[in-house]
Amino acid sequence: MVKEVLTGLATDLRGAVRDLLPIVLVVGFFQILVLRAPLPNLDGILVGSIGVVLGLALFIRGLDMGLFPIGEAMAHGLARRGSIVWLVIFAFTLGFSTTVAEPALIAIADEAAAVRAADGALAATAGSQASYALGLRLTVALSVGAALVVGVVRIIKGWPIQYFIIGGYIGVLILTLFAPHDIIGIAYDSGGVTTSTVTVPLATALGVGLATAIKGRNPMIDGFGLIAFASLTPMMFVMAYGIFV
Amino acid sequence: MSDVGAMLLEILRDTVLAIMPIGLLLVFFQTVIIRRRLPDIRRILVGFALIIAGMVLFLAGLGEALFPLGRLMAAQLTDPAFVGGLGPDGTAQWQSYGWVYVFGGLIGFATTIAEPALIAVSMKAAVVSGGTINAWGLRLVVAVGVAIGISLGCFRIVTGTSLPAYIIVGYVFVSLQAFRAPRTILALAFDTGGVTTSTVTVPLVTALGLGLAGSIPGRSPLVDGFGLIAFASLFPIMTVMGYAQLGEWRTRNKQASPTQEV
Prior knowledge:
The structure holds 2 protein chains of 2 kinds. Chain A has helices spanning about 1-35, 40-80, 85-100, 105-120, 125-155, 160-180, 185-195, 200-215, 220-225, 225-245. Chain A is mainly alpha-helical.
């Protein structure tokens, strides 16, 4: 196993250098040619870049060895057990538990509370803002859980994805008409940030694993799409929360 | 040196806390519900250890080296002293912000290439499609979509035009495109919208949006600074579907041309 980690690592390291190179080039180009300033803290940048490259390589090796296999093993195990109820409970818990503590969501919820307080829609005390933000976090986490449930049921039934997405778009547009003006930007952004680096590989492995295990499903057509649902529902729920709370 | 150690420990604690709910969930379902031994438990545990170690190094490296510089550059590029973009009446003129659009596009492209969640999804897509989809190619196409999205999003902040208007037009376009694009790409295309903006992209892009909105008279960072992430999640859906349509169109042409040669 040590050998497996080490032999793959050389390739992974080369890939990681290639992945980081664009950022270094863009930052270097602007710093030196456009802003015409020297690079500050060059040692820190070099050490940090080595950390990024090593970290990315280890992460990708870990995906192949840990996260992908377990995601697929779970999908196969649950499909073989044939219990839709447990599958739905698993999908919901996965969505809810990974979202409720997501740092990006905590930041978004605090900002939404600050915007509402600046509006006068919320008492400008720390307590009322904190409870507003917590309620919003729970709402969004519920919405991601619900999204994964709908996504898993869609995979089991083999329904086409585009009708769900277009339906979600229509829901977003209708809510935009009624949502408090200030909250719209935050709500739109919340869709992209709620799915974390660990949730994405696991949800992908789960979806693809399910579509492979269930007869008559095509992993390419049916297996993807869980993340798409999980990034659509927060937009609606953040706006709905702004309307009703 | 002890500072670095303390920082690493703090990131390690946050990462472990973030992964804990998933770990507990997996252990519970594996032992209580599925009750089937995992094929190679030691290998999976090593994999998880690598993921945690990788994320700690990755986040520490970004936080130490690239984020402070990126934020500083976003602030400098949007500074009125650098842009000189205010007209005689004191309003922002969108033509003067050329470097901001270029920077937004390029940094969006560059951060998307390094986004671990996107790497994971494209690895999976390459395997599932049996090699029809090239992992690196998919990431490039997604990164181009993010670049277009961020550039346009910066333009929107500078001009102060309505965010819902852009998003509605985008939604209509994506919906129409979904009926024309090959069926096999749809789910993956919609997924890429959610995975592009994550650990690397969000902090830098948010800094750019807030800096831009804060430096233009009459804009409030709290209200106008948002929306870049929404653009960055919408445009990759279009470019991925467009790329698949292009591929389909080219195969059709290739199939049509040999009849002429004969």
